[in-house]
Each structure stands twice: as structure tokens, then as C-alpha cells.
């Protein structure tokens, strides 16, 4: 089941970037963003459809990508040596063409048993992150023997958050199908760079730990059941993200107690889009990074670990953070808020007496609406990293949540023992081997090379 790279090239904007746009100044949001590339891969099946020739398909993708980069012009540039600006001189995004010697349905069946197979479908060897020659975006388009296609995009987090990255892919698809997209808002002068001394770097991977990744399916009925269990005991109507997050978090808290012998403090770090949440009226289509990361804390209290207790912690932390953002009347106040929250997150992350997890949610992002002209994707996933991370996204139908959990092997065993989580895993296993590609296997990551630099 090999994937062969057939060619690589740089795709440049279809029209030259004008002189006044050649130097894109970053903001304090970009300064504080993780130094990593964020990959997503979209799988498209052509079952029951007339497929176009692979060569024509590739040329259409390249042409529409080039046209899209004219709008998303900073993504075709390179960071300056000081990291405070992007040289937008149309250097281009790295574009790989690849071919897999397997049909898509067979690949989905095998990837259920070995998630390492996903590695070959993401663009690799992008370059050192701190290099001024490293592309900000890399793409890999892999064709299967059945005619199906995997389109993977790896975007630098230091120039694009989840909103911008997903918008770029959606707009590329729209350009391919419709031939036009709307311009973005690039006005960022109100958020200049700042002194960021005092923030610790992210903690590295646990030495010698064996990380595994599994996906848990909380379909519409599972979400409704969790909501019904929680609703009578909380003062608000819980969202599907809140109940799913709380369910997984409780499972991890119990797993930690089984490992360590006592109930430890546990913290989830959550990011929230700031567009539309400050008095500065940041445009909803603002390019770049524009989010706040904040901690949600469980302090190890035995009588505060029921599902409804954790849902309340999640809601209160979000509510309080939004309220603070709404008070930030100028960029300095907003920077102080974003900075102090990130500083607290990093301090907690380095505390060996606290269990720490990242929570990333792409729920409500229109991922499954990306149609390049041959139908919507049948499956979307990101890379897995050797870190304590929970990644949420909507199911294709939109009523449930797919949760991809990456933790140590010991934590995963404990998580699966949770009754609510075990039910979701059982539902996931029923889908194994289907052409829809919902995988639920184990992705083992020890000290292997990661996509993240």
C-alpha cells in the first residue's frame, strides 16, 4: 500500500502581488501562535460517478489554487528573518502530486487497523520552521486506483489559525468549482507586534512515552443522551461540544486517578475565535490569527467530577473569557488578556503535578462543504501528534461529533473504560471497513518524526 510522490513544484499566485502588499506585517496574535504547521486531509470518493482524467483534475486544481493565492497572497510568501513580517514576493506554496497503489475503499479498511498509513498522505519535508525559505503552505494531492483523491493542506499556524486555514481550503474548492471567491480583510494595523518575554515555550513530549490515537464517535443519539443526563443539573442548555468535551475529560481524569492512585488537578486548554467578540469589531473575514487560548481547571475535588460539574466548568470558563474580551476596549488591553491567559496555560503545562490536555475544536466550521467540482468529501482528518490532545469536529451529517484523542497508552486504556466513552468507541467500531472511511484504530507515535517543527 505504497504512496509514490510523482512530482513537486511551487504554485504561485496567478497575478503578481502588488508593491504595496509585498510586506505583510504580522500582529501580536501571530507572535503568540504555535510554531507548527497544521495539516488537514480531505478524502473524495467517485463511487457511482463519472470521473475526470487524473491529468485534467490535477491541472484544474493547480490553476484554481494559483487563482486562490492571488486572494490569500501572504500564504504564498515567506517569513522574514526577524519573524515580524512576511515577504510576499509570490514564492509559492509547495505542491506534491502523488499516487497510491490501492483503491480508496481498501485504504479505509486498512487504516482502521493501522493509522500510521495516514502519514503518507500529508506533505512532509516542508523545511525547518525558522527558515526564511520554508513554505507557509504545502499541499499533497494523492490519487487512488479507483479515481478517488486525497487533498491534504498543511498551513503554518504562525500565519493562519483554524478559521483562516479552513477558509483557505473552502475558498480553493469554491474557486475550482465556481471560478470566483470573495476577498478577505487584511487590515491588521491595530494589532502591532509586542514584547512577549515571560512566556514559557510549549512542553516537549514525555520522554519514552508511547502515544496512541483513537477516534470516538458521538453520533446524534449519543449527544442527545449526554445532554439529557446533564440538562437537569446545569443552569443552561448544554451544547454538544460541552457535553462531548466533558465526557472525554472525565474519562481522562478517572484514567489518571487509576494510574497515580489519587485524584490530580486536570486542565484543558481551549482556543476561541475572537472575531466578533471584542468591542474593536474585528471583521468576521479577518485573515491571520485571531484567537485566545485559556485554561479550564478541575482542581481534583472528589465531589466536583460528575459530568454536569465538568460541563459547568467548561461553560463558566468560556463565559468568563468572553466577558473579559468584551471589556477589552483597545489593542493593548486585548494583548494583555491574550498574553496573560497564554502565560498561565504554559505555566500549568510545565507543572508535573497537573494533568494537561489541549482541546481543539473545528465544530461549526463548514469542512464538509468543500466541493472542488466532484462532490463533497467523504472523510476529513488531521495529523496525529505525540501529545495530550483532543480534537473535535462535526460528523458529516452535523448532528454528532467525531473526537480524535491522542494520549499515552496508559491514559487511553483508562479512557476506554469510561462507560459513556466506551459506547462511542463501540459505535465507531461498527463502521470499520466501510467506504465512508470512519477510522477507529490505533495510531502509535513514540519518538517518530512529526509534522510539527
What can you see in these coordinates?
This protein is of the alpha+beta class and 453 residues long. The chain has 2 domains: 3-178, Chloramphenicol Acetyltransferase, CATH 3.30.559; 211-365 and 383-429, Chloramphenicol Acetyltransferase (2-Layer Sandwich). The protein is built from 10 helices and 15 strands. The chain has helices at residues 28-32, 54-71, 104-111, 162-178, 220-230, 240-260, 307-327, 331-349, 409-416, 419-429, and strands at 3-11, 23-25, 37-44, 78-79, 85-87, 93-100, 137-143, 149-156, 211-218, 266-273, 291-298, 355-361, 379-382, 389-394, 401-408. The chain has a 6-stranded mixed β-sheet, covered by helices on one side. A hairpin with a 6-residue loop joins strand 14 and strand 15. Helix 2 (54-71) packs across helix 4 (162-178) and helix 5 (220-230) packs across helix 6. The radius of gyration is 22 Å and the shape is globular. The relative contact order is 0.18. The model is unreliable at 432-453 (pLDDT under 50).
Number of domains: 2
Major β-sheet strand ordering:
1-6-7-8-3-13
Radius of gyration: 22 Å
Mean pLDDT: 88
Q: What is the fourth-level CATH superfamily of the largest domain?
A: Chloramphenicol acetyltransferase-like domain
Shape assignment: globular
- Return the string of H and E elements: EEHEHEEEHEEHEHHEEHHEEEEHH
* Structural class by secondary-structure content: alpha+beta
CATH architecture of the largest domain: 2-Layer Sandwich
Helix content: 25-40%
Uncertain residue ranges:
432-453
Distance between the termini: 27 Å
Pfam family, one: Transferase
InterPro entries: CAT-like_dom_sf (IPR023213)
Family: Belongs to the plant acyltransferase family.
Keywords: Acyltransferase, Transferase
Amino acid at each position: 500500500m505504497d504512496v509514490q510522490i510523482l512530482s513537486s513544484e511551487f504554485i504561485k499566485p496567478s497575478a503578481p502581488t502588488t508593491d504595496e502588499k509585498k510586506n505583510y506585517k504580522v500582529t501580536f496574535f501571530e507572535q503568540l501562535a504555535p510554531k507548527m504547521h497544521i495539516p488537514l486531509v480531505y478524502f473524495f470518493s467517485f463511487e457511482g460517478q463519472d470521473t475526470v482524467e487524473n491529468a485534467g483534475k490535477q491541472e484544474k486544481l493547480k490553476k484554481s489554487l494559483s487563482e486562490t493565492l492571488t486572494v490569500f497572497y501572504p500564504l504564498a510568501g515567506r517569513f522574514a528573518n526577524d519573524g515580524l513580517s512576511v515577504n510576499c514576493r509570490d514564492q509559492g506554496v509547495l505542491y506534491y502530486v502523488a499516487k497510491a497503489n490501492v483503491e480508496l475503499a481498501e485504504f479505509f479498511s486498512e487504516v482502521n487497523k493501522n493509522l500510521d498509513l495516514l502519514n503518507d498522505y500529508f506533505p512532509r519535508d516542508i523545511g525547518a520552521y525558522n527558515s526564511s525559505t520554508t513554505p507557509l503552505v504545502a499541499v499533497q494531492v494523492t490519487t487512488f486506483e479507483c479515481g478517488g483523491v486525497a487533498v491534504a493542506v498543511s498551513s503554518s499556524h504562525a500565519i493562519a489559525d483554524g478559521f483562516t486555514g479552513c477558509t483557505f481550503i473552502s475558498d480553493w474548492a469554491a474557486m475550482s468549482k465556481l471560478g470566483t471567491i470573495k476577498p478577505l480583510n487584511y487590515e491588521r494595523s491595530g494589532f502591532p507586534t509586542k514584547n512577549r518575554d515571560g512566556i514559557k515555550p510549549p512542553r516537549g513530549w514525555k520522554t519514552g512515552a508511547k502515544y496512541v490515537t483513537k477516534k470516538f464517535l458521538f453520533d446524534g443519539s449519543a449527544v442527545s443522551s449526554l445532554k439529557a443526563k446533564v440538562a437537569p443539573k446545569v443552569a443552561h442548555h448544554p451544547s454538544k461540544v460541552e457535553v462531548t468535551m466533558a465526557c472525554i475529560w472525565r474519562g481522562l481524569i478517572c484514567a489518571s486517578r487509576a494510574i497515580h492512585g489519587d485524584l490530580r488537578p486536570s486542565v484543558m486548554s481551549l482556543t476561541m475565535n475572537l472575531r466578533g467578540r471584542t468591542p474593536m469589531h474585528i471583521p468576521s473575514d479577518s485573515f491571520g490569527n485571531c484567537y485566545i487560548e485559556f485554561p479550564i481547571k478541575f482542581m481534583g475535588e472528589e465531589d466536583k467530577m460528575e459530568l454536569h460539574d465538568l460541563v459547568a466548568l467548561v461553560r463558566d470558563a468560556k463565559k468568563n473569557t468572553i466577558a473579559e474580551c468584551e471589556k477589552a476596549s483597545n489593542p493593548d488591553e486585548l494583548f494583555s488578556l491574550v498574553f496573560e491567559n497564554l502565560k498561565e496555560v504554559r505555566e500549568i503545562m510545565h507543572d508535573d503535578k497537573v494533568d494537561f490536555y489541549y482541546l481543539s475544536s473545528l465544530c461549526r466550521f463548514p469542512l464538509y462543504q468543500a466541493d472542488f467540482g466532484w462532490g463533497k468529501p467523504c472523510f476529513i482528518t488531521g495529523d496525529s501528534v505525540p501529545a495530550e490532545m483532543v480534537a473535535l469536529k462535526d460528523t458529516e451529517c452535523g448532528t454528532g461529533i467525531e473526537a480524535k484523542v491522542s494520549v499515552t497508552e496508559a491514559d487511553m486504556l483508562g479512557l476506554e473504560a469510561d462507560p459513556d466513552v466506551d459506547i462511542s468507541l463501540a459505535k465507531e467500531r461498527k463502521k470499520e471497513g466501510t467506504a465512508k472511511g470512519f477510522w477507529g484504530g490505533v495510531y502509535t507515535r513514540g519518538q517518530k518524526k512529526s509534522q510539527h517543527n
